[in-house]
Design brief:
Blueprint lengths: L2 H11 L8 E2 L3 E8 L2 E13 L2 E6 L8 E7 L6 E12 L2 E7 L3 H11 L14 H5 L9 H24 L1 H17 L12 E3 L2 H4 L3 E3 L7 H5 L4 E9 L5 E8 L2 H11 L3 E2 L3 E2 L2 E2 L1 E10 L4
Parallel strand pairs: 8-15
Antiparallel strand pairs: 1-3, 2-3, 2-5, 3-4, 4-7, 5-6, 6-7, 9-12, 10-11, 10-15, 13-14
Length: 290
């Protein structure tokens, strides 16, 4: 019996909506930072306006959390990326306010909204582009109406073309925002910390728990080829070798070193108790036995 008053208090706490909202039910990917590592949370949108998005998310977020949002508007090929802050939360329903939404993305929303019917809510104002499509006054001629319709279509096409042109810039802005998101993680330094660290070999080799010795190629031994092969490596959070790139050493020995090191296993490298991916250098020495 107490749920109705509680719901009424939540509704009274919500600020009045200033922008027209439109119903939108599409998949939404929300990215959150957990201990400095981005994690994706699936969800589905409920409604959209230029200022924010309402969605149902399979996550436990709190008002004030900063997240990344990605979704596609129906009938438009480009994905919309934005940084948002959680403003409201009720059960699994979240209200998110966009932060630093690019002009191109705002134009995408307006273009999409101009093809919809009446916005949600009785007090919501009509779309600015929708008003341009209103029928001409009785005193206007048919020729004027045709010119107005052609001008509107031209403006819409120009707006859409501009959205495609700045698509690359939108991606760049999206990835750049992770520096700001990372700085907001509690307990992190002011400069932030990337999800992949550069770690010296002296710190990684003590964590080696399984080593496969490299097979010395017969042809290299016969020709007296010897030396040290150095490999740039990426070690995953589970200690597996994810990537290998030779940086120095005799070419005749590079493949043998790579074939062996890819089977090495390490204890996970941890930061604040959490395993992280690391970049390091690994060396394999080839020397004929006397």
């Amino acid at each position: 019996m107490s749920s109705a008053p509680a719901q009424a208090r939540v509704q009274r706490a919500l600020p009045p909506r200033r922008l027209a909202r439109y119903r939108l039910t599409v998949p939404v990917d929300v990215t959150v930072l957990v201990s400095g590592v981005p994690q994706n949370v699936p969800g589905r949108s409920l409604d959209l306006c230029e200022g924010g998005l309402a969605a149902v998310l399979a996550a436990d977020l709190k008002p004030g959390d900063v997240v990344g949002v990605e979704f596609r508007l129906p009938d438009l090929g480009l994905a919309l990326h934005a940084k948002a802050v959680i403003r409201h939360q009720a059960a699994l329903r979240y209200g998110m306010e966009f932060m630093a939404l690019s002009p191109a993305h705002r134009a995408m929303i307006r273009y999409w909204a101009s093809h919809l019917e009446q916005p949600l809510g009785a007090n919501a104002s009509a779309s600015p582009l929708k008003s341009l499509e209103a029928a001409p006054a009785s005193g206007q001629s048919t020729a004027s109406s045709a010119r107005g319709g052609k001008s509107l279509r031209t403006a819409l096409w120009v707006m859409l073309a501009a959205s495609f042109m700045v698509g690359g810039l939108g991606w760049w802005q999206w990835y750049r925002t992770w520096q700001e998101l990372d700085a907001r993680v509690p307990g992190k330094s002011e400069s932030g910390q990337a999800s992949r660290l550069r770690v010296p070999a002296s710190a990684m080799m003590p964590l080696l728990i399984h080593r496969v010795e490299a097979a010395y190629p017969d042809a290299a031994q016969q020709h007296g080829v010897q030396g040290v092969v150095v490999l740039d490596a990426v070690i995953g959070t589970d200690g597996r070798v994810l990537e290998l790139h030779p940086t120095s050493g005799p070419p005749a020995l590079t493949q043998a070193a790579t074939d062996a090191v890819k089977w090495w296993r390490f204890q996970p490298y941890r930061v604040d108790g959490q395993p992280v991916e690391v970049e390091t250098s690994l060396a394999v020495e080839f020397r004929p036995q006397s």
